[in-house]
Amino acid sequence: MILETIMIIALCLLMLAILANLYRVVKGPSSADRVQALDSIGINLIASIAVYSVLLHTHAFFDLILLIGILSFIGTVAFARFIERGVVIERKR
Amino acid sequence: MKPNDVILRSVTRVAAVIILTFSIYLFMNGHHHPGGGFIGGLSTASAIVLLYLSFGIEKVRENIRTDFKKLAAIGVLIAIGTGTASVLFGKPFLTQTFGHVDLPIFGDTELASALIFDTGVALAVIGTAVNIILSISEDR
User: Fold this and answer.
1) Do residues A71 and B46 touch, judged by C-beta distance below 8 A?
2) Nearest to A41 by CA among A70, A14, A18
3) Cα angle vertex B69, ends B8, A68, to 5°?
């Protein structure tokens, strides 16, 4: 019972962190700030899924944690290349 | 000045192996746990996209000599072939079957013919996803 209360409090705090990151996504002056905030939202989402699967007593979502980590990494790399060089996939010419 | 990609390339060398292993795990796991052909194919495609991002089109095309259009076509052919194979045994189209086989390392293993169908789905998904991303990046 007390464990569930702690889990729900942790979920609320993670939701607050996602909302704070969302403020940075909307307000951020440069696009690098927005990309950084989106990456941080992905990490908070991973933590929320972990806490929520402990709350539900299941391990069906553990693949999802790894998958969100991979997709968040690839998306951040793609955005970083786009901001820095203008092209995402390079080619010689 | 030539841009310096050392950190991205060294991370990619490690991460691509991990992502490909994870995609094979998701693909083989799909019968009893979350996973299957679609998500396994998508994570393989994401690993290939990561390789394209960090090494450029020409270098990956030298090393992975696969025509992804042909790969998608081969996947659809495998998926249809498992369906018609059940017709040859006198059962309805796309009927599945399974059997227990004694493999040398794994022992008594249940092999289902849905795995071959899933292979077709995975190949079609890999071919389609990588082909879409490559043909978008060709244009400018």
Assistant:
1) yes
2) A18
3) 40
Using alpha carbons, select from B37, B15, B51, B2 the residue that is nearest to residue B121.
B37
**Entry pTM:** 0.88
The answer to whether B75 and B122 are in contact (CB under 8 A) is yes
Q: Which residue of B has its CA nearest to A82?
A: B53
**A11-59 confidence digits (pLDDT tens):** 999 999 999 999 999 998 999 999 999 999 999 999 999 999 999 999 8
Q: Which two tokens stand for residue A63?
A: 């693949």
**B119 in reach of chain A (CB within 8 A):** no
Q: Which residues in B lie closer than 8 A to residue A84 (C-beta atoms)?
A: 3
Owner of token pair 């996947």: B75
Helices assigned H by DSSP within B30-67:
37-55, 57-63
Chain A CA closest to residue B56? A90
pLDDT in tens, B38-92: 999 999 999 999 999 998 888 888 998 889 999 999 999 999 999 898 888 888 8
Q: How do residues B85-122 score in pLDDT, each as one tens digit?
A: 888 888 889 888 888 888 888 878 888 888 999 999 99
Looking at the complex, does the CB of residue B58 fall below 8 Å from at least one CB of chain A?
Answer: yes
Of B3, B34, B56, the CB nearest to A63: B34
Q: Which residues of A touch B57 (CB under 8 A)?
A: 89-91
Task: Indicate yes or no: CB of B53 within 8 angstroms of CB of A89.
Answer: yes
pLDDT confidence of residue B137: 83
Residue with tokens 């059962």, as numbered in its chain = B91
